[in-house]
Structure prediction request, 340 residues.
Amino acid sequence: MLLFDCRTRYVDSVNLLIDRVARSGTSVDTPKHLWWNGEQRAWEDCTVHVTEVGWSTVGAVFEGIRAYWNAEQEELYVFRLEEHIERLLRSQKLVKLPIHYDRDTLISAVLNLLKANEVRQDTYIFPLAYTSDTRHHRYDRAGFESELYITTRPMPSHLGSGMNMSAKISSWRRISEDVMPPRAKNISNYRNGQLARLEAGTDGYDTAILLNHNGNVSEAPGACVMFVRDGVLVTPDLTSGILESITRDALLQMARNLGIEIQERIVDRTELYLADEVFACGTAAEVSPITSVDRYTVGNGEIGPVTRQLDALYENILRGRESEYAAWRTPIWQRVAVGA
Ligand SMILES: Cc1ncc(COP(=O)(O)O)c(C=O)c1O
Prediction:
């Protein structure tokens, strides 16, 4: 059984768990197969020349998708696969990377890859579309070619673990629409969150929250931000410089169905200082409670009731224990049985 220290950073927690999986002999970074440029191939066969490294990822876009294992049902559920693939194609369109595969091809590629890699644990699925043939070019040539790979690796969940974080309002501003598109999952965008996360770590915080160019709350590195005040769940709207997050959308729908009032709007930083509950959310972040912001204690410093309720419901949905949200899940092994 894996235990979390209450104050452990979620990134470190996930890394710690991945290390343990690695030490237990399970392959972490080397699944048997990758999907690359239209075909499922052996891991060893998927190589590119080192001189491609420099510019190939500047315009690259990706998705982070998760699949959750339910041991009782012996089933692996991919969460909101269609929505993730559709966002990948939107990201490609926004950064003008040629699109060679349609939605259904990529969905099948993910499902078949999970089967080929015999995945029976919580897993992260990573499709990446990148610029190819960059050896003799930089970033400024029109009509670049693109390639696409999909890989899988174990990523244990921290839901229900009691993990919580301290956050610092970053001195770095979130990239805005007039710099580069925040709503796309472009690899280059991530330098912004990385700098904020590095600053927060150096200053003794677990994570960061970035303000946008108007000075309003935007999001955390790799995660959206929500807070609760007087029973209302509030989150920055989609024009606050945030990614069009699939988890954010899921949690808002879940909260609405639970009868919780929700608001998507411009958020001031001081609202976080006065909030009863704050949490980050995202595919990797899942629900990550934030119990202090800039050393202001959030509520009473404990994980709040709305956060707990959403965290528990989210885990039940992800692991296939909630029939109401079945449309958000794609089971893997049942498909094998049906199609066999
Ligand atoms: C910058 C950024 N914001 C927010 C999120 C949350 O988005 P999603 O819920 O779709 O994973 C992510 C991805 O995990 C992200 O990278």
Q: What stands out?
A: Confidence is low (pLDDT under 50) at residues 1-11, 14-27. The first helix runs from residue 10 to 23. The first strand starts at residue 33 and ends at 36. The chain has two domains: 31-154, 165-318.
